[in-house]
């Protein structure tokens, strides 16, 4: 299972570097968008991974009288909840609603429990390694 996850990640990274379309169809259940002209449901026809944080999607309107086809961009812009297996090469700002001071207190006082990864390989150690920032 871990090898499949690693191979899929390597494949996506290679496609992003080459800048070519994968040609794979994407299910539309998770990414719904209404047609900007007739408001009918649109389906994703193709998807192109531009980078680890951005994807270009080609949508087609399901209304046969409209038939509009358009391109949209999906971008990951901030972190709402930090990853348990962060990748140091991914630089995303932490949302302003996250109370960093509370997170540090919780992490500093939390006991550790043994964990065996099943789906992803850890790429870093402690999420908040290093000295805490100076108070304002």
Provide tags for this entry.
single chain; 136 residues; alpha+beta; 3-stranded antiparallel sheet; 20% helix; elongated
Provide a descriptive summary of the structure in words.
The protein is an alpha+beta fold. The chain has a domain at 2-75. 20% of the residues lie in helices and 18% in strands. The chain has two helices and three strands; from the N terminus they run H-E-E-E-H. The protein has helices at 2-18, 100-109; strands spanning 42-51, 54-61, 69-75. Strands 1-2-3 form a three-stranded antiparallel β-sheet. A hairpin with a 7-residue loop joins strand 2 and strand 3 (69-75). The longest helix is centred in the first third of the chain and has 17 residues, at 2-18.
């Amino acid at each position: 299972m871990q090898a499949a996850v690693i191979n899929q990640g390597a494949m996506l990274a290679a496609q992003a570097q080459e800048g070519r379309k994968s040609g794979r169809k994407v299910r539309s259940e998770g990414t719904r968008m209404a047609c900007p002209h007739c408001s009918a449901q649109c389906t994703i026809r193709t998807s192109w991974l531009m980078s680890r944080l951005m994807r270009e999607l080609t949508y087609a309107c399901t209304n046969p009288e409209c038939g509009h086809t358009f391109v949209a961009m999906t971008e990951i812009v901030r972190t709402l909840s930090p990853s348990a297996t962060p990748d140091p090469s991914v630089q995303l700002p932490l949302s302003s609603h996250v109370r960093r001071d509370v997170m540090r207190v919780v992490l500093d006082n939390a006991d550790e429990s043994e964990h065996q990864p099943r789906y992803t390989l850890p790429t870093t150690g402690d999420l908040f390694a290093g000295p805490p920032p100076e108070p304002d």
